[in-house]
Task: structure prediction
Amino acid sequence: MSKALDNVVVLDLTTAFWSSIGTALLADFGAQVVKVDNLPGPGAGAGVSGWDYKAELAQRNKLSLALNLDDEAGCAILRELVRECDVLVTDWPRAEIERRGLDYVSLCALRPDIISAWASGFGPKGPDRDLPALDELAAARTGMMPILPQPGQPPVYAGAGQMYTAVMLAFGVALALHHRQATGEGQEVDVSLFAGNMYGASLDVQAFLAMGGERFLHPVARLDAGNPMSGILYPSQDGRWVCLTMPDTDRWWPGLAAIVGLDPNDPRFDSHEKRCGEHRLELIRVLEEAFRQRPADHWKRELTARQLSADLIEEFDYPANDPQAFRNRYILELDRPGVGHVKTLGFPIFMSETPARFNRAAPCVGQHSAEILHELLGYSEDRIGELAANGVIA
Amino acid sequence: MAAALEGIRVIDLTVWFQGPVAAQHLADFGAEVIKVERPQGGDQGRGVRSIKALPVGDWNQYFLVINRNKKSMALDLKKPAGREIMYRLVEKSDVFLSNMGVELLESWQLGYEKLSAVNPRLVYATNTGYGRFGQVNKPSFDMTVQALTGIMARLGEPGQPPIYLGMGSGDAYGGLMSALGIMLALYHRNRTGKGQMLDASLYGAQLFLTAPTLQAYLATGSEEYSKQQSRKAAENPLWHRYPAKDKWLFLCVPNTDESWSRLCRSLDDAALASEARFDSIEKRRRNAKALVARLDKIIKRRTAAEWMARWRPLDIVASPIHNLADLAEDPQAWENDYFVETYCEEVQRQVKVRGLPIGLSKTPGSVRSLGPELGQHTEFILTETLGYSWEQVGEFKAQGAIL
Result:
């Protein structure tokens, strides 16, 4: 099988979970990703006891080079690596990037067609461009936290915004690689946690921009949902929740009416306009009452039998044991020495010719230092030994 | 300026949100995206009349923004002539993208084997609900799939209803995954001349979306990750949400002795710093509930702006928790083109739209036009791109294969 990003070398200077996932996606599809661990950092294994499940996901398929960047010899090695790489990715603060001579202009002097990707908190422009790259700060600015919960409840932090940014990072790099393939020209790529959070909230944000209105600024009570049949939850008899998504209600109404014991021709609800307009609140009340009459398992059977667009709210034990998730490699089962049988998130994209592959587990810090210096930079064994003895690499 | 995807032609046979937004990413970066729609009504997204029980107003932003920078062709794929046109389009395209059901595509003879025989260089992308493999085959709208991932069940206060991440939140992620997969496949194709099939499902994307907590749960099996946790308890009370006098704040302070003393200095509460139950990292963790309650009281004494003014010079990291009205005015969003203004033909004025979340310095994305009218470019594509004569176009029209 071939690799989508065969022969692409990525110098990975990311430090956060989310940004490291961005480069892991490139590694999953065949890029050679060299993760640079700055020395003196935490030694191998420090900080995490046992299996490091975050690294398992964020650092898989990568090589690790441990380099002391406070040492001039370490910086020299980094510059040599820049000459050999196609893409450099970092989430460092701007000041740090400039101090280390890794700004785009300096990089171009070493490698004119380099693709330089920066993953930041708030983007390259504007008054807050130097705020720390924390997903919590970006989520707080996006405007969704106050309206996710029910009225009167604390604002909700979901932690998903950073995951949009991780994929944007990989996508931005892929776009730039495509352009370079066609023209030979490199460029800068930038993504931010703020942009990722905003993108994740696309429809709410865009609706507010176009429509405005107080209803977008405060939580909407569950029993005041815009569509009684879509984007709404009803509790069943045993307290488990049923979730309905039938936006085009004309299509789904006969089936839904049948399972909740309503006449599909009930004149209160016999058109989309009535269901979502004048009789919206009444239909919500009727459905609330109906779903309470039977337990969740009953509803699951009925919904499935009629192929309705609805399901039960599940907890993480559901995907963790879902054959569908394993069959499609969304979740993987692996054996890890000293840990045993483990489950880890797999690959969200299926490709027939260049599938994502799990070639190597997350590296220990410096696991591939000698290999990289030898293979990418042609260093001799003696020289590598000397650098290690001097604490430049580990 | 040059566009990253200049010369790339994409067939966008998608409806609602996930598929259209995947193609929108490609269109923003200059691909020629041809949206193929059924002649009767087109994409269902055109029919959106209200959001949150509010009328969408004089322009349907739901449809027009995710279909920006695209052309529209109205084609009846149930008719042989419609399919003939589609095959000719496939011959001349780089990417075929659809979020229709796999069986429906097969029934229209638009499966991967058929189309890759027409054009072996084709990148064939689908957005299934639950993946290409396995037995599951059921409707897959965003929120019901999110329901299955487990993320909804863990959000909110104990006893409160589960929480959805926002309209189309999972679709947006599936669309982005799809766009990434297409770029990877194009890169490979440009090198090898070989197309392929790819799939980014809504379920697969949404499982990945919840990685920060699902990965932890897979490793530990701990209910700490899978069940609702009260705000009144916290692993680190210094990294937490608190209500100020007027609005909420997100305080992001690591639990170290140094940052604790810095925070205490800013709080104007003499007793707090000397309280023995909070005087070490371990005690602040162990007595988290009491500390959250103390901080709740203290932080309520001032407004968010007052706290921010105190904290900024002390390098105490925090943010007011904004609402969408704050976001709409946020200079940070506008200066980075995360919001832009563009002309809307439908209402003949400038409108504000979601902009460009990914920056490329030499080949930036752009918003050149909002979504097309149904079939707006059918004749243009038939004659200019596919080389049909006007006579043939007339025949297609008579057969009802085009609008």
Q: What stands out?
A: The radius of gyration of chain B is 26 Å. Chain B has 20 helices and 14 strands.
